[in-house]
Amino acid sequence: MDLSFNDDQKQLQDALAKFIERDYGFDRRRAHQLAAEGFSREAWTQFADMGLLALPFAEADGGLGGGAAEMLVVMTAIGNGLIVEPYLATVVLAGGAIARAGNAAQRQELLGAIAGGRLIAAVAFEEPGARYDLAQVATTATKNAGGYVISGNKAVVLHGAQADRLVVSARTAGAAGDAKGISLFVIERGAPGMAVRDYRTIDGLRAADIAFDGVRVPAANRLGNGEFEEGGAFAVIDAVADAGAAALCAEAVGVMESLNRQTLEYMKGRQQFGQPIGAFQVLQHRAVDMFIHAEQSKSMAYLAAIKAPVVDRADATSAKERRRAVSAAKVHIGNSGRVIAQEAIQLHGGMGMTNELAASHYAKRLTMIDFVLGDSAHHLARFEAA
Amino acid sequence: MDVDYSAEALAFRDEVCAFLRDNLPGDLRRKVIEHRHLKREDYMRWQDILAARGWLAGHWPKEFGGQGWNHVQAHIFDDETSVAGAPRVVPFGINMVAPVIMAFGTPRQKEVYLTGIRTNKHWWCQGYSEPGAGSDLASLKTRAELSGDGTHYVINGQKTWTTMAHWADMMFCLVRTASDGRKQEGISFLLIDMKTPGITVRPFLTLDEDHSLNDVFFDNVRVPVENRVGEEGKGWTYAKFLLGFERTVVAGLGGSKRELATLKRIAATEMRNGRPLAEDPRFAAKLALAEIELMALDMTVMRVLSSRSKSPGPEASILKIKGTVLQQTLTELMMEAAGPYALPFVPEAQDSLADGVGPAHAAQLAATYFNWRKVSIFGGSNEIQKNIIAKAVLGL
Ligand SMILES: Cc1cc2nc3c(=O)[nH]c(=O)nc-3n(C[C@H](O)[C@H](O)[C@H](O)COP(=O)(O)OP(=O)(O)OC[C@H]3O[C@@H](n4cnc5c(N)ncnc54)[C@H](O)[C@@H]3O)c2cc1C
């Protein structure tokens, strides 16, 4: 057992902290968020230069072979800086799906492009009304000469409109709800028959609802074509979603730490009744509870990161153990995140309600992380069933 | 003991419901039910309808042009209008400054301002808080000095968090007229015309990107001395008298009844594992607990009503705490019920009846959740309410 970071990992941590301090202040972040694409290509290039976009992939696929510790470092920093670039969508989710389900040619081409910062990608797993159940796939992939025709609807696809390629789950057999019969397809942006509604999310990111109406894709665009059977992608989807949830847990911890720091600073500075509000014992205990929530959340984020790697590994734990760990972490962090966000706003008083204050944006992100890849209620049920 | 309404009260309720059926505009109702933002003209339209019926100020005594409703009638009115999805009556005039003017105002103030409020001619805002004076309101610094000829106060300073100041015709304002002695002394209560030269209203957005809040700056603003309510230096007494009314309004019981119904409707349409969310035992339990909280609050309000003296006492603090926490719980459960569709943020759908993304009921739920964090902060934060109960009720 070793739950500490080695020197390389600490260096990465420092480099990211410096990047945020120098290049990713709150005003800069806001400018990125309000840009046409909702993020900054320049920052993305910096991420590529720092090796972040290659981090989790195997060296054979052009990656750096990073593991749980590296992902914890990066995702926590993304939370610390409230970074809006599509790292989760591109690297963790789409990259993870391609690394796990792709054939050699697909891994080579797509992961190389992701690692180099040349490709923005996203996954379209969730469907309207499916409520976090990723086996609820009504989208169909019907075979025709040379390929498939895809029809169906995908909901709240993170960075769906900004992605050059989408990894889409669609059914080649079975009925919505069946784990069997689902395959993954790579679909290019702007493919004929695709309608995209792009929108902002309340926590400062971008997402899209996407309708596929008879979109034609060549057989070569099925992930794993020639290597893996059609219809067997659910295990990959489940593992990728778990890696994504684990990444979100680490991001949440970064948000918590930053938000707690901002709240403490405010409590020390804000004077009412002739003293800092931090002198009121009733508020001190609230701050202590927030601190304990963050510490416990960090522990759970570590567990989730260790049990749910982005790419498959020889020493991977069983799917059951992975599910238990990730769902436990997601429940814990969903609840702690909501509490910390509420308390941070409350302790800031009216200031916590304003759009000008960084803390309120941290509070929004922290709250809404629970709505991505399964909320606490979803994962509580999944934990019990695992 | 009897928890049922009298036949008279029931007849009144029927009258209110019939009125709402005939007069509540459908578009306003939809905006309220779907948590869209109301504009000034939306509030005005509804308040004009109420004023025409004589019900905008129904709970006022007859001598001031009200209907002289008793507490039970006022409660029924508030409940039924809220449940039906009517816009809330903007409280600053009707519920907040009016009782102060009735109790402490001059005959001219009563004539001019109570009439203006009752007939929906004057929109009021509340100028209490300042950047350095929130919970510690008595430390407010905005200065009012008598002009050389003694006819005017000259105001300099800043108010903040002033809700709807950009729509207001009048502000009731706490100013410092003396700075020696206890800080509670030396505060005066002024009625200020927002068109007076030297007033600047600067808007800012809340975290849901709504504009309801403003800073208000005063630069040598001249206010006639006859616009002072009561005695100079006694403003704190009037201010506290008013805050009791604010806290009962802020409990928002009727609104919570409406929101509970909305929550149930959403939970009946949203699905989980192929069944309505309302049938999911875990969600059903959360919903039931919220409903039980609502019942308890309802009964506590009834108890307060059946014993209430003229101005609400420390029990108002209980209503404020429990009422606001319940409102926040309901926004939280609605947001949870929306699932992933809580995430989209479509400003046009917030400010109009335009379509958002996903089911219509989902569009505003996260924004409402975040906006509703305010209710445990304003009107005296819930921490301050607990301090009041600890001191005034428990004697700690
Ligand atoms: C949406 C909104 C609308 C508003 N509208 C108006 C308006 O129209 N007019 C107006 O005048 N004001 C308005 N306010 C201001 C509101 O009344 C103040 O925000 C409130 O009084 C709290 O003051 P503050 O924001 O300065 O917070 P602070 O007083 O700085 O409080 C910060 C935190 O410290 C806590 N705290 C402070 N003192 C103590 C203590 N002694 N013991 C324990 N905890 C303590 C508070 O509870 C809070 O959690 C509005 C505020 C909001 C958010």
Structure keywords:
heterodimer, A: alpha+beta, Butyryl-CoA Dehydrogenase, subunit A, domain 3, four-stranded antiparallel beta sheet, B: 396 residues, alpha+beta, Butyryl-CoA Dehydrogenase, subunit A, domain 2, four-stranded mixed beta sheet, 11 strands, 14% strand, globular, binds flavin-adenine dinucleotide
Distance between the termini of chain B: 32 Å
For the termini of chain A, the CA-CA separation is 25 Å
CATH-level-2 architecture of the largest domain in chain A: Up-down Bundle
Helix-strand pattern of chain B, N to C? HHHHHHEEEEEEEEHHEEHHEHHH
Question: Could you characterize the architecture of this molecule?
Answer:
The complex is a heterodimer of chains A (386) and B (396). Chain A is an alpha+beta fold. Chain A folds into 3 domains: 7-119, Acyl-CoA dehydrogenase/oxidase, N-terminal domain (Butyryl-Coa Dehydrogenase, subunit A, domain 1, Orthogonal Bundle); 122-221, Butyryl-CoA Dehydrogenase, subunit A, domain 2, CATH 2.40.110.10; 234-385, Butyryl-CoA Dehydrogenase, subunit A, domain 3, CATH 1.20.140.10. Helix content of chain A is 49%, strand content 16%. Chain A is globular. The two termini of chain A are 25 Å apart. Chain B has 396 residues and is α+β, with helices and mostly antiparallel strands. Chain B folds into 3 domains: 7-89, no CATH class; 125-234, Butyryl-CoA Dehydrogenase, subunit A, domain 2 (Beta Barrel), CATH 2.40.110; 251-392, Butyryl-CoA Dehydrogenase, subunit A, domain 3, CATH 1.20.140. A 4-stranded mixed β-sheet of chain B has the order 1-4-5-8. Chain B has a 4-stranded antiparallel β-sheet with strand order 2-3-7-6, with no helix packed on it. In chain B, strands 9-10 form a two-stranded antiparallel ribbon. In chain B, helix 1 (7-23) runs parallel beside helix 4, helix 8 packs parallel to helix 10 and helix 9 (281-307) runs antiparallel to helix 10. Classes of the chains: A alpha+beta (386), B alpha+beta (396). Chains A and B meet through strand 6, strand 8, helix 9, helix 10 and helix 11 of A and strand 9, helix 10, strand 11, helix 12 and helix 13 of B. Strand 6 of chain A pairs antiparallel with strand 11 (344-345) of chain B. The complex binds flavin-adenine dinucleotide. Flavin-adenine dinucleotide (FAD) sits between chains B (125-129, 134-135, 161-163, 213, 374, 377-378, 381, 383-384, 387) and A (270, 272-273, 277, 280, 282-283, 346-347, 349-350, 353).
